[in-house]
Design a protein that fits this description.
Strand content: under 5%
Shape: globular
Structural class: mainly alpha
Number of strands: 0
């Protein structure tokens, strides 16, 4: 991997960590503005905390489009794969440690997020090593899978299904059946 791409991903990891931490408080900072809630967590649910990775990663992708011009044919698929892997990492670690400990610990709150940010950049790095450009269907799928969470966040922020993923830990929703 070239130095420019490596530096971009290293800076991207730092950006994801800082922007995600700041984004955590954005909804409250805006006085609980409903529009701010579309991009910032409106509750302490695991689902809402995925926004902390997704929206900064979307900005990182836009920056990558400008900075890594020679990687444009691979970048959407790389960031899409990275974001999905990062979001699943966050959920995996969160549900693992809360399952083992039987409760959510505030002291552990940053671990899943930092691991998710690292996985996002590592997976993106792996895909960016692929030939550039990727075949057109793979490129389009990368763009589609990068946009899909945006639509899901907008849909489920204020109309979430009654399942544990969308509930605040310790206040899990009743089973829908």
């Amino acid at each position: 991997m070239d130095k420019k791409t490596r530096n971009f991903l290293a800076a991207g990891f730092v950006f994801l960590c800082i922007a995600g931490c700041l984004l955590h408080f954005f909804y409250d900072f805006t006085g609980k503005d409903p529009l701010a809630g579309l991009i910032s967590p409106v509750s302490e649910s695991p689902w809402e905390h995925l926004k902390l990775l997704y929206f900064p990663a979307l900005l990182m992708t836009a920056a990558g489009w400008l900075i890594l011009r020679e990687k444009r044919g691979t970048l959407p698929a790389a960031m899409s794969a990275g974001v999905w892997a990062g979001m699943f990492t966050i959920l995996d670690i969160f549900y693992f440690y809360t399952g083992v400990l039987g409760r959510h610990l505030l002291a552990m709150a940053l671990l899943p997020f930092a691991a998710g940010a690292a996985v996002t950049c590592l997976v993106a790095a792996r895909v960016l090593r692929r030939p550039n450009p990727l075949p057109a269907p793979v490129f389009r799928a990368g763009v589609g899978f990068l946009i899909l969470p945006l639509l899901l966040f907008f849909l489920f922020t204020y109309d979430a299904p009654p399942i544990a993923l969308f509930s605040v830990p310790g206040r899990m929703a009743a089973a829908p059946f």
